[in-house]
Amino acid sequence: MQPAAHAPHALFPDALLVESAWEVCNQVGGIYTVIRSKVPATMPAWGSRYCLLGPYFPQQAQGEFEPYDDYQFDTANDAFALAVKAMRADGHEVQIGTWLVTGRPRTVLINPFQAYDKLPQLKAELWQHHGIPAPDNDDLLHQVIAFGHLSTVFLQHLAAQMQPQQRLLAHFHEWMTGVAIPPLRRLRVPAHILFTTHATLLGRYLAMNDPEFYDHLMRVDWQTEARHFNIEPAVTMERAAAHGAHVFTTVSELTVRECIYLLDRIPDIVLPNGLNIERFVALHEFQNLHQQYKAKIHEFVISHFFQSYAFDLDKTLYLFTSGRYEYHNKGFDLTLEALARLNYRIQQSGLEGQVVMFFITKRPFTSINPQVLERRAVLNEVRETCHAVARQVDERLFVAAAASQDHRLPELNGMVDDYWKLRYRRTLQSWKTSALPAVITHNLVNDQDDDILNFLRRAELLNHQHDRVKIVYHPDFVSPSSPLLGMEYGQFVRGCHLGVFPSYYEPWGYTPLECVARGVPAITSDLSGFGDYVLQTIPDPEQKGIFVVHRQEKTFDESAEELTEMMWQFVLLNRRERIMQRNAVESSAELFDWKNLRVYYDRAYALALERE
Known about the structure:
This protein is α/β, with parallel strands linked by helices and 612 residues long. The protein is built from 23 helices and 17 strands. The longest helix is centred in the middle third of the chain and has 34 residues, at 370-403. Residues 1-9 have low confidence and may be disordered.
């Protein structure tokens, strides 16, 4: 059942809410998307009673944080500003201002490095009072510990500035900010504390290294494994935060099991993640955007493939997967196996058309492949030559038409100068090649050990002309500044036909949700939080363009065959059926809007306010 949202004005009018995350104004991973996208749904309910708290890193913050001017720094009846003023009076460097995102929330940023001189004392207290170890050679841990101390100081000042009838909610995301929870409880700071783990730290490591992770989960000795992966301090911080919070939450039913076995506490509430869904007034509007951005992908595909051989772009489907490079966790291994099987199926079927599959991830590389860049440059020359010929024909055809005594089309070949005929011929000669299109667009630092490339080599999926599934492995983020795709990631998603994300370990999974938000069908798995949520809450998700591969209690081969069948059925759709499917996806996007999913947070806050 989809929960109904509360009326915004009725939400805890006597409470202040501080939401703390390492990724406030500091994009590192998925938590940034969670916090940033939730703000527009949070602000109407909380307004001036809401404040975000994060670490101050000037380089990251400068593009999206705007400090208050003196005239904006009005401390009258503003407990947050009064707390900042009190910290500054103590000599602390604290920023208060606005995060320049939709909703423009009040934001406090604190530089963790200013507390480095207190690290020996802070580390001793964490060990003495909470059994949390902290080595001397880990700078991230030092930043986390320092920020945890400064967050505690801020919340102490904030509690002192509140009106007698006011209550304070402090919500911490992930272990990097959760380290403040044990000191807050020890010092009896009057705050109702929540802690959300989006993915247990140990769970992520175990899943990457154990193909039977879910079967072995209940037998894991957390301390032995944390020491094995050299992450015991961070895992201990995560466990202390989970046990110290009044309310402990996670993001999916899948991570509930991890929390039980790895953190030894059952989460009180599950907080599914949403997006700020921007609906279009008319269906044709997002269809037009699909056409517009697909044309940009066409341009790349022409430059990448057509120098070697050509195919019909109107009968070409663009599929993609993206995310952190975790070959097993992200399901890249399953996707590749299914693509190899799909390639064989299409070849045997005699169907027309091609599938171009993009792998968008991040890997260390030295440069863009010079051959890929050269293809792009030569294609630009072909385009310029064609434009020059067209301009010359255009001018001469107009004059000939105006002077013509009959209605026949004149001989166009004679309207082109010999210079441009020769230039055209030579340009095409330099354009064509017998070399195969590269499967990867960049030169990796160590391509011999890359799992994606090694699979493609073993499977002979190397962009031969007879291959019906073509591969473009793009080991860098998509951006407008890239000379290859030259577009925003969201634009690239809109231009594609299908997103493929059959993850093995995915506590939530924003990539398929981002597809749905843009009206693009998506494949997810029942081992991702998003896929599990879809199966539990949406009847017949396939009718809405959301496909869930079953990986729980299935062999790799069974899941690969199911994924192959899903992509095969997608290939069989005609253009009209794909348009109808995109319409269905777009209409279902509102189910995942924060305006609807924020109610889970409201329930967690209500529960926290009940607990002392």
